[in-house]
Amino acid sequence: DTGVSQDPRHKITKRGQNVTFRCDPISEHNRLYWYRQTLGQGPEFLTYFQNEAQLEKSRLLSDRFSAERPKGSFSTLEIQRTEQGDSAMYLCASSLERTNLANYGYTFGSGTRLTVV
Amino acid sequence: LAKTTQPISMDSYEGQEVNITCSHNNIATNDYITWYQQFPSQGPRFIIQGYKTKVTNEVASLFIPADRKSSTLSLPRVSLSDTAVYYCLVDSNSGYALNFGKGTSLLVTP
Fold it and tell me: Model confidence over A53-107: pLDDT tens digits?
C-alpha cells in the first residue's frame, strides 16, 4: 500500500466553476477525513466517513461543499461555484476505526492545492 | 473540546535536543495526545502519540505529566531536515479532530 493518494495535486480554476477532488485511503482504513488548510493555519476539519456512511458533515463550509464515499473506499470532495476564498490546500486522511481501547492517528495524503482565479 | 497552546516558533542548531511543550488544560479523560510534523506542500505526518507518562519511538519522545495538562515533544539531536511545523493534537477516540491549531514552526540551522 502506498499510503493515502490524492488527485490532482494542483488545480487552478476560474471562479464559478465546479471542482472535484479524489482521495484513495489506505485500503484497510475504514475512516476517511477531509480537512482544509490555509496559509499559516493548521488543518481544519470538514467532514468524515466511516465506511460509506458520512458521520459528520456540519463542518462543511457551505452547501457548495459536498463529499461522497460511495463504496466505502475512495472519496470525492466537490466544490460547486467556486469562490476565491475557496483557495486552499484540501487534505484527505484515513485511519482505522478508533475505539475506547485504541486511538489511531491519521495518515494524511499530500493534498490538493486549489487556486481559484 | 480541549484547546491546545504551543509556541508559534522555535529555533535550534543542528545536533541539539529540541523540546516543544503544548498546554492542554481542559483535556478530557478519553483524550489522547498526538504530535504531527508537516513540511511545506505535504500533509501532516504522525510522529508520536501518548496517553500518560512517557512514550518513545525511533524519532521522538513524548513526556506527559500525571495531570496531563501539558505534554512535551522531545526531538533528540535535530538535523536540518527537522525544520517543519509541529502540531500538538488532543482528541478523543470517538470521532475526529476539529482543528490542529497553528502549530510550532521549528527552524534548524547549521
Answer: 998 888 888 999 999 999 889 999 999 999 999 999 999 999 988 776 667 789 9
Dihedrals φ, ψ of A84, to 5°? -60, -30
Contact A111 B102 (CB under 8 A): no
- CB-based burial, A58-95: b 16+ in 10 Å, e otherwise: ebbeeeebebebeeeebbebebeebeeebbbbbbbbbb
Separation of alpha carbons A89 and B42, rounded Å: 9
- Residue to test with chain A: of B52, B94, B96, B105, most A Cβ within 10 A: B96
Smallest Cα distance from B100 to chain A, Å:
5
Q: What is the DSSP letter of B80?
A: G
pLDDT of residue B1: 60
pLDDT at residue A108, rounded to an integer: 96
- Report the residue of chain A nearest B87, measured CA to CA: A42
For the segment B16-45, the average pLDDT, to the nearest whole number, is 93
